[in-house]
Each structure stands twice: as structure tokens, then as C-alpha cells.
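C-alpha cells
________________
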Amino acid sequence: MSKGRRAPSVATWFSDSGKGDIIMQEVKVPSSHLTRYTYYCCLQWNAGMNGGGYCGIQDHPDGKNYIFSIWDPEPHSMTPGKHIEAVFVGTGTLIERFGGEGEGLKSWNFTLGWETDRWYNMVVRRWDFEGHTRFGLWVHDETENRWHHLVTMDFPVMNVYFCTRTCCFVEDWHGSGENLRGAMFRNGFKRLIDGRWLPFGNGDFSVNQEPACEKYNNNFCAVTNEDLTSIFMQTGHPVIPLEGQGASCKLNVQATHKEPLIPPIEFEVTSSMETGVKWYVPESSTPQFSYTVKVNNKLIESGIDPYKREVCLHCTSGQVEVSLQDIVGRETTKCVNVKDKCAVNDKNGCFEEVK
């Protein structure tokens, strides 16, 4: 790579200051702005702090990649003898250590793939687990209406939240600034710890102009669409800034809604008998995060488990209540009667729904 041939990195920091447990944003790469060796980062959080990380999509020589990375914790703050671990690994997801700009754990996924001119919603949620903090990544392909859980990482420090402003960026990580690259971002939200949703509001746009980008340091641009609901960051030849746009500026971004337009989880109770209750969540539904099962209003079992689909009951009669919370905090409850004989026959079992 010749010196000074990278496209400058472009980034936007949003006005979502506050302590939160969920962050999300949608990203789309127009086919006209697809260039290999580009990282289109959708979410970056806690930079330089415990629990710092980022996620996004990448055009890599090996394919269309999803990345999720978390930097190592500060040694004095972590559980002694522990390190970051991937406690859930989705189909096709690869786990490995990374170095260079700090050290930590990263996940790759080339199997799932992504396409240009499609919106992808990336959702990251944190939760507490046995004195540690866990971070999970889910992705929604809006064209196919399918959700995917790519990875969950266990971070060996307790009570880590999304504390900083959230950032997105476009980066040439190889050195081909002669090519145009860019991405669109919209519908960013953070859920604060009091349950309120904070939209990603007005952003601070900046360009990282450095010797590695010397040839293309002035090839960048950032615009908002007509209704101010999305931003479009571009970098590399032949793009040029808008008139009067410098290497840093304000982007007037406005949310159209006070909270995410993501429907609550949908599921079916497929069997409710004296031995146990089972349920099914389709791929098109907002994914499950946690579950609670009660019989006659008495708690039988609950927990955080995106893949729990069955709970033992050991009762001969009564009303079963199954409540599922999805990854963005919505809850759906269904009630059925325990049956000693099938009320409804299907391939999954039997149940009688309480109307």
C-alpha cells in the first residue's frame, strides 16, 4: 500500500448521553458505495472505558462480514482469573482474540451475509449475570424479515452499561481511497436504565485527516435526507464536501418516533400438559430475551434465556401463564389450560388456549 492512499475515516457521534442497557441503529450500504476493505460500523460505545466495543458490517475479501468486538477490561476492575468469553456463538460465527488498537475478543460471521441496498437493524443489549456483564448482538434483515442472534459475550466486570454517546463510522482499513465508499444510518435509539427511550438526535460529524489519508484527506461528505431522519456518510474519491462543510460539523438529525417501531414478540404455545408447557417463536418475530412461567399465578420458573422453549410443570390442572420479554423489552403473555388429554392436536403437542 502506498503512503497516504487511505480514504479518511468519517464518523458521527449522536446526542444520546446517558446510562442505558440497549442500543440499536439501522445501516444500509448503497451498491454505488460498496468498496472492499471497508468497515461500516453501526454502533460504537464506551470508547476507552470498560465494556467498550463496536459492531457493524464489513466488505472483506472473504465475503460480507458481521463484526462484534469488545476490548479487554481494565485489569484492576475484572474478576480475578477471568477474561472475556463467548457464551453463545450463532451459526457461522467465529471467535478470536484481536490486537493492534488495544486487545480484546471479536466475532466474525461470513455465513449469514448481507446485501447492498438493504436495511439491517443491529441491536446490542447488556444484562447482569453472576457478577459479570453480558453483551448480546442481534441483527434484523428487514427485507427478509428475519432475526439472527450472532453472539453473546461474557464481560468479567459487573454493572457495565452503555454510558457514552453512541458513534457510527465508515473506515477504509486497507488503503484504496481512490474508490468511493459510504453508508446510510437511521432509527438509532438507546434505552435508558429508567426504561425511557432516547433517540439518537443531532450528531457531531468529524473526519480523521492524517498522513495515512494524505492523498484523499479532502474527499468526504456527510448529508441528511430531506426529512432529517437519516444520515449518509461518504469518503474517498471523487466525493467532495458540501459547500462550507469542514472536517467537523453538526448534523441535524431528528427522530420520527419516541421509541423503536419494533413489534412485541410473537409466539405460540404448542403444548400445555401436566408434564410441561412448550412454546414456539418464529424467525420473523422479535427475538426472545427472557421468560416467565406461572401456574394459577404461582411462579414456576423464570430466567434470561433466548432459547428456552419448555418448562416442566408437574401439575394436573390449572391455568398456565407464559410471559416472554423480547430483546427490546416488550412483553407478551399467553394463558392456556393444563390438559391431561389433547385438546388440540398438531405436530408439536396439545393445548387449550384461555380466551
About this structure: The CA atoms of residues 84 and 235 lie 34 Å apart.
